[in-house]
Structure formats: C-alpha cells, structure tokens
C-alpha cells in the first residue's frame, strides 16, 4: 500500500455515470493544499518535475493528487503502480499499452485509465460551475456563434451552468484527441450539437486535425454534476481512430 499524504484522502475507485465502460478505472480523491508539505512528494515516492518545485502549494498539491490517482488507476489496470511523467508538452506520458487522462479542480482530483487495446483516447475534465456573472463575459470565447444561437434558452435561463458545461466538454475533447493528433485546437474548433439531462452530449469538430479526425467528425460525451462540480468524459474506442 502506497503512502497517502495528509493533504489527500485515500484514492477511491468510483464510476459516477449510470452506464459502465469495461476496462476503465476512474480514481478520485479530495485534497487540501493547506495540509501539503514539500516532503509529501518524497514520502509518496512521486518525483515532481523541476518546473513545479518552486510553485505555490496549491499547484504542487494538484499535481501530487492527480499523480496519486493515476498511479492507483494504473495499479488496478495493469498491476504496476507506475506514475506518468510530465511530457515536454505538459501532457502525461503513460506507460506503453495504457491510455489515460488526469484532471483536478477546487479540492478534487481524478484520473481515468484504460488499455490501448480497448481505447485509443480518453479525456476527463472537471470544473466548478461558474456563476452567471462570471460566465457571461466568457461566452463568446467558449461558444461559437452557432452555439450561442442554438442554445439561446440555456444562455438565458442557466448561463453559468451551461457555459461551464460547454467549457468542460471542449476541454475533455481536447484531452481525448490531442495525444492522437499531436495538434492543439481551441474552443472555436469544436461545437456542442446537443446535450441532455441524462448526462449525454454530442460534439462536432470544426477543424481538420488529421486524416482520421477531419472536420465534421462527431463524438459522444458524457457528464455528471456532483455538488458544485461538473465532470465530463470523452472516450475514443480503439477501433475508431
């Protein structure tokens, strides 16, 4: 059993959506930066990247919590409790044969892990739901003109929740596809086509990313609200890309 520092709760394997997906492990924990000490990395047997060593406690705790989740997910998926390194592009470097994603938001971190034989890409993101006053000034940065027209009722009656949802889903899409295409894309390069209260959504690419991921490609996503937090997931099956 690996050491868990006082700034983090024990990692928990808990699937928040009604429909399970075979072979995936979603590990999460709560964290508290006020309880973090620099020695927590050494005691946890996790080596922080040089860029993190002078960061504030909040950033260090986020990284530590996310890697603790990833290590537990890899242990459950492969039997080996490896810790993904930080790549030059700041994306996690997963062990050969594995695919995953890491996220953290206010006091909560999570990682999802699967096998490359089953999944080509995984994207996981979590966001604290913004207030209407905070979200509305960001609307044009996050939503395309078509989305603003398509979802006018949502922007009128639940702007904070909806804009956070679109932000979360697009971040998740990027995390799922970037390792496959090695090309950055932004909010204006994808659009939300539909979303439903059951936690399902449909996204469409508005830019050409690669031969396998051209403009107009559509993908399914899922999301869930837990207290004041939205968590979203995009899964790319191995036989799709």
List keywords for this structure.
241 residues; Ribosomal Protein L22, Chain A; 7 helices; 2 domains; 29% helix; alpha+beta
Q: What is the strand and helix layout of this fold?
A:
Elements: E1 12-13, E2 25-30, H1 39-44, H2 57-78, E3 85-86, E4 92-93, E5 98-105, E6 108-115, E7 119-128, H3 132-135, H4 139-142, H5 145-150, H6 152-157, H7 159-181, E8 190-195, E9 200-205, E10 218-226, E11 229-237
Antiparallel strand pairs: 1-2, 2-6, 3-4, 5-6, 7-11, 8-9, 9-10, 10-11
Q: Summed up, what is this model?
A:
The protein has two domains: 106 residues, Ribosomal Protein L22, Chain A, CATH 3.90.470; 99 residues.
Q: Tell me about the biggest sheet? A: 5 strands, antiparallel
The CATH class of the largest domain = Alpha Beta
Label the structural class. Answer: alpha+beta
Q: Give me the strand/helix succession.
A: EEHHEEEEEHHHHHEEEE
Task: Describe this structure as you would to a colleague.
With 241 residues, this protein is an alpha+beta fold. The protein has helices at residues 39-44, 57-78, 132-135, 139-142, 145-150, 152-157, 159-181, and strands spanning 12-13, 25-30, 85-86, 92-93, 98-105, 108-115, 119-128, 190-195, 200-205, 218-226, 229-237. The protein has two domains: 12-117, Alpha-Beta Complex (Ribosomal Protein L22, Chain A); 127-225. 29% of the residues lie in helices and 28% in strands. Strand 8 (190-195) and strand 9 form a beta hairpin. The longest helix has 23 residues, at 159-181. It is globular.
């Amino acid at each position: 059993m690996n050491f868990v520092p006082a700034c983090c709760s024990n990692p928990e394997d808990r699937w928040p959506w009604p429909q399970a997906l075979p072979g995936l492990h979603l590990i999460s924990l709560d964290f508290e930066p006020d309880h973090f000490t620099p020695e927590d990395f050494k005691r946890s047997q996790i080596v922080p990247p040089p860029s993190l060593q002078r960061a504030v406690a909040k950033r260090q705790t986020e990284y530590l919590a996310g890697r603790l989740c990833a290590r537990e997910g890899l242990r459950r998926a492969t039997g080996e409790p490896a810790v993904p390194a930080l790549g030059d592009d700041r994306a996690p470097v997963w062990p050969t044969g594995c695919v995953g994603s890491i996220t953290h938001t206010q006091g909560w971190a999570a990682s999802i892990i699967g096998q490359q034989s089953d999944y080509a890409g995984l994207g996981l993101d979590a966001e604290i739901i913004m207030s209407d006053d905070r979200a509305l000034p960001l609307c044009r940065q996050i939503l395309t003109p078509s989305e603003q027209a398509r979802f006018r009722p949502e922007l009128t009656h639940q702007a904070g929740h909806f804009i956070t949802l679109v932000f979360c889903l697009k971040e998740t899409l990027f995390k799922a596809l970037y390792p496959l295409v090695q090309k950055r894309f932004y909010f204006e390069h994808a659009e939300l086509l539909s979303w439903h209260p059951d936690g399902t959504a449909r996204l469409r690419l508005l830019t050409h990313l690669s031969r396998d991921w051209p403009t107009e490609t559509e993908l399914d996503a899922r999301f869930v609200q837990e207290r004041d937090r939205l968590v979203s997931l995009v899964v790319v099956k191995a036989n799709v890309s």
